[in-house]
Amino acid sequence: MLQAVDERLSIWGWETGTGTRFAILLDMWGKDGRPGTGHGVKEGELKPAFKALQTAYIRLLQNPFYTPDDYASRTAAGGRDPGQITSKKFTDEVQRIGELWRPGVTNL
Known about the structure:
about 15% strand; about 110 residues; 3 strands; three-stranded antiparallel beta sheet; alpha+beta
């Protein structure tokens, strides 16, 4: 865990061997939003979610029409934030990972 935001939210992070960093914001209360209904999370339980995020990111980078360098040049000209990924396929996959992951899930 990188940081506990409050008694409900925590931020977890993972860095790949190539230096790419991923962060997951986790609601410790669970889907129903009541205290005590979520589960404590051990560090290793988030590994499948981080691996799935890394796989989705690799697939994004393999797209010949996606060039991360274009975002930097647009920002210099007053465009979008260079760190913002706008690919619908990527954001849909991230949404899917977030909906399917639960403590104890080993494959996403």
